[in-house]
Amino acid sequence: MSAKKFEDVSSPSLEATDLNAAPLGYHDVDVFGREEDHQIQYKTLTWPLVAVLMIAEIVSNGMLSLPSSLAVVGLVPGLVLIVFLGSFALFTSWLLIKFKMRHPEVHNMGDAGFILFGPVGREVLAFGTVVFAVFATGGQILAGQIALGVLSSNRLCSMLYTGIFAIPTLLCSLPRTLDQLSWLSVPSVICIIVAGVVGMIGAGLHPIEGWRDQFSVTVSTDFVTAFISITNPVFAYAGHFMFFILISEMRQPKDAMKAAYTLQIFATTFYCVFAAVTYIYLGPDVASPSFSSLPLKWSKAAYGIAIPNFLIAGSLYSHTAAKLIFIRFFRKSRHLHEHTVFGWGIWISLIALMNGAAFVLAVGVPIFNYLIGIAASLFASWYTYGIAGAFWLYDAWVYKGGYEAWKRRWAMCGLSWLTLAAGAFICVAGMYVTVKQIVDAYDSGEVSEPFSC
Asked: Which of the four, 110, 226, 314, 372, has the lowest number of CB atoms within 10 Å?
């Protein structure tokens, strides 16, 4: 592993690191520095607002695929998977936050990649972050298109719905700081909770007749079909690629773990309740997204309430992609902290570019939904799970004595290697399953024409 440091800044030692206190000199080394006299101040987030941002970004359209995952493997195995992957995501959050506290110069996954693997690592992980964020933005725009189509009984071309939804997504992603977006995220979180509750009530009042008489806690299936039940919750937890950026804008980075606990406990609990209730009442043929299996009036109510969440989640993703590039351009520049025409011009251009790319992909690529799966397999599997193991292994090797440190901390070392292996398995198996789905879709004639209604 490379021992290089980003921009030749020495990272704090392991002994100086504590999740209850920022390392000495943290605010002198991090990307935004001391901000007391700056016009634009980024480090203003409190941990409750970071928790809200995390929930708004992660608990969104991804949860609507979870009931169909339970339909694939059964209630008990599906819930066990959701709980296990949520707990696993909390563990990797802890590793990621410890790495950030030891390396305050890290603003995004690209910076972390530079520390671990040098310049190539920076470019690969930064590229992956931007690609995944743009694809995730497109996924939220498609969710908005579905919602608008249901609300209007599909009276317009679906491409028009996509364009209608893309415009407010772009506008909401324009604020320069995440603090401004955090206040928009509060109603976003409320909306997805209420929408989920409405969906569960609708399912309970209109269950599939005779289904509960045939109910089974487990279901036999093949590997490809079963692995979908793994990929859906994996991608429903896929938000770690934003964590470095979020922590970098915290007033007190030492509180980041409080936000992570809040996120994972809420997300895991809500996912389990929503997936189980919806599956139990709507049965093995529940759609993905699950709101589409509800009676029309309940489907309209659930989708209508969820729209603000789809909108803000998409804005957060496009904001993340634009900010990574913006920081790469203007790190240590006055354009980062001042209201300059040039700085605002580049920022607005980047926001327009990220949202424009997401829109074009969503309406112009017939297999875009499958491409989201490929992007998630390639990058989310590592950002949410695998690479966190490398963070611990790197710091233990560099700051604690190399191989001897790994031997002394054999339990953590083993867990870290297992985390890397899990990321690799999800990546390879997820790619295989997604590519097979694409082939099957083409063989069955399900793939539509580009830019079609």
From this structure: 226
